[in-house]
Write the structure tokens for this entry.
Amino acid sequence: MDSTIYLEHFKVTLENLRELTALALSKGGDFADLYFEHTIFNELSMRDGQVNSGGSHIDYGMGIRVLKGEKTGYAYTESTEWEDMRRAALNAAMIADSPSGDNPGYTYSDGLLKGRTAGRYYWPVARLADYGAAKRLPLLKRLGAKIASSDSRVIKVQAKITDSFSTILMYNSLDGLSFDSRPLTSVAANAIFQDKDGSTETNSASRSFRMGFDLLSASLIDEVAEDTVKGINERFSAIRPKGGEMPVVMACGGSGILLHEAIGHAFEADFIRKKQSIFSEQLGKTVCDTSINVIDDGTLAYNRGSVNIDDEGVPGQKTYMVRSGKVESFLHDRISAAHFKTAPTGNGRRESFRFPPIPRMRSTYMESGGCSPDDLIAEVKHGIYVDDFSNGQVKIGEGDFTFYVKSGKLIENGRLTSPIKDINIIGNGPKALSDIIGVGNDLKIDNGAWVCGKEQSCAVTCGIPTVLVRSLTVGGEA
């Protein structure tokens, strides 16, 4: 796509961009970049068959980052008028010029990126913004009605369709110009169920892709409805099992959130650079079974976490964090890549133009192994099978984690038996990785509306095949 369209969209020229970066570097900065964004957000929400909220808003502006030694200066403006941008460039320069300690002795270069070009993993077609509420409303009604009619215990249903479309232009002091158009559409539902005895359970489901109106088919709406009521019988009959150390089988798909939280964050290279990660000294070392490959991927077609280019203009790519059991790469933005004298991996991401980019995950998953999921369960004499996590807490430095388990089943003598709920899984990320003794052949990417909240909100996805962990602490009944 022609860069002229993007330059005209923000009413700037290449000469303007060069002048702004020169101003940003006027206090002796080492590197400067500009990030222009125009995002249109839309939302339509329905509760119990009635529209209860809807709206649209626009986010527009640009941010300027200056790097000088170990210091970052960042300023933004919600205007692209010349004087506003000029003021932001000078402010960023002054912030970066404040005392910051020793110069790190590295330079910023795109040399290691030569030959790497941006792919196309999503396309700006059929924008949902071009279809009014009249097009969305029948789909919301279908979603709500499907859920309500699926189970007599449904007492409340909330359904929502949201979308955004971002026009992005980036420029840096290496004379790098890049641009992208990013669609993102999500469908979500939440239901409250009440049994005859008055007890209640909730369940939710969502789908989110970098697509526009073409995402919203009747079949996808029905799929979300089915997932919203799926497993509710087990939820009502579930028990809280006895706790202790035991084997844990994690189901394919959404269990990948544990991989994201307990392992993925520790590979983000800002933590590595500051030696705050337990993996800081592990590059090239074996950390788990040689059958295990862990990936952070920005190249999955239409995936919520994919990036044609990241928020520093670096092409999206597929990065092996762990390959054949060895730590192969960390997740780099331009700062950490310059520090380690390697190429950035396309992981420089930001919430909006109001924030500087930092290393963030995209779609994080483990590749399939060679085991049947049934065989993994059959290996366990006494343990648990977990299929729905939430509310994870992780200490990046130590790798310790705690996750709340919403649903799963007991494993007794190699068979799934009683449904379970309301327990915690407690462990250590690196140890849990090294304790994986079986990897299923059923990798599933969970295409829900996942959001990572590391300092800023960012759209991500996760996935995992069924895996057997030798031992984790299960917090249940005494």
Notes: The chain has a mean pLDDT of 93. Residues 316 and 346 are 5 Å apart (CA to CA).
